[in-house]
Write a structure and sequence with these properties.
two-stranded antiparallel ribbon; 11 helices; Hypothetical protein af1432; single chain; globular; mainly alpha
C-alpha cells in the first residue's frame, strides 16, 4: 500500500530541550555571552585595593594590577625555577589566583588574626563557585581547577606561582621604601618568615636577590628589625 506523504508544518515542530540537540550556532552564541559576562565581571578586580603601594609610592596597588604583574613574573622567572614548570599553566594560574577577591575582598597578607581569617575560606570558595560558574562549563571547570590547584600548592606550577605571589609584593615594598610594612609594624624577621619558605625553595637565586634588597632597606632605615 502506498503511504501518503506527511507534511510537517512549522506549528507541529517541537524544539528539543536536550542541550546536545541544540543548534551548534546556538551553543556558540551562548558560550560567547557567558564568556563576555565573565570578562566584564573580571573588570571589577580593578576596584579591589591592596595594602601595598606601587614601587613609585604614588598610590596603593589594586588586585588586577597584582595579578597582571604576577603573570609577567611567571613568564620571566621560569629560567630560575628549581622545578620544571608548564609555563602556560603557570601564567593562567597567576592570572586567576586572586579573582575571588571580586566577591571576597583582599585580606592583608600579614593579618593572621582570628577576625581576619574567620570565614575567609568559605567566602573565597563561594566566590570561586559564582565567578567560574559564569563561564562556559568546560572553560569554567578548567580555570576553577587551576584556582584549586594553586590553593592546594601541591604541584610544581602551584609552588612556582605561590613563590612569585610572595616575591612580587616583597620586591614592591622594598623598592617603595617599606611604607606598608612600617604602617603595620612588619619587621625584617616577619617578612622573611612569611616569604622565605615559599620563595627560597622554588626560586633560590631570586630569593637571594630579594633578601639582599630587604637588608639594604633595613640599612636605610625603611624596615625595622626585631
Amino acid at each position: 500500500m502506498r503511504m501518503t506523504p506527511t507534511t510537517v508544518t512549522r506549528s507541529t515542530v517541537t524544539r528539543s530541550t536536550d542541550p546536545h540537540d541544540r543548534d551548534p550556532h546556538d551553543n556558540v552564541a551562548e558560550d560567547v555571552r557567558a564568556t563576555l559576562r565573565f570578562f566584564m565581571e573580571a573588570d571589577r578586580l580593578k576596584e579591589v585595593e591592596r595594602r601595598n603601594h606601587l614601587a613609585s609610592g604614588s598610590r596603593r596597588e589594586n588586585t588586577a594590577e597584582h595579578s597582571w604583574h604576577l603573570g609577567i613574573a611567571a613568564m620571566i622567572m621560569a629560567p630560575f625555577a628549581s622545578e620544571p614548570v608548564d609555563l602556560a599553566t603557570a601564567v593562567c594560574m597567576a592570572l586567576v589566583h586572586d579573582i575571588v577577591e571580586i566577591d571576597a575582598g583582599d585580606t592583608f597578607a600579614y593579618d593572621e588574626s582570628a577576625a581576619a581569617q574567620a570565614g575567609k575560606k568559605e567566602r573565597e570558595d563561594a566566590a570561586a563557585d559564582r565567578l567560574f560558574g559564569l563561564l562556559p562549563p568546560a572553560m569554567g571547570q578548567r580555570f576553577r581547577a587551576l584556582w584549586d590547584e594553586y590553593e592546594l600548592g601541591d604541584t610544581p606550577e602551584a609552588r612556582y606561582v605561590m613563590a612569585v605571589d610572595r616575591m612580587a609584593p616583597m620586591l614592591l615594598n622594598t623598592a617603595e621604601g617599606g611604607t606598608t610594612w612600617r604602617e603595620h609594624g612588619i619587621t625584617r624577621d616577619r617578612v622573611i618568615a612569611r616569604n622565605g619558605p615559599h620563595i627560597e625553595p622554588a626560586l633560590p637565586a631570586v630569593w637571594a636577590a630579594a633578601l639582599a634588597g630587604l637588608d639594604a632597606a633595613v640599612a636605610a632605615g625603611h624596615v625595622a628589625t626585631d
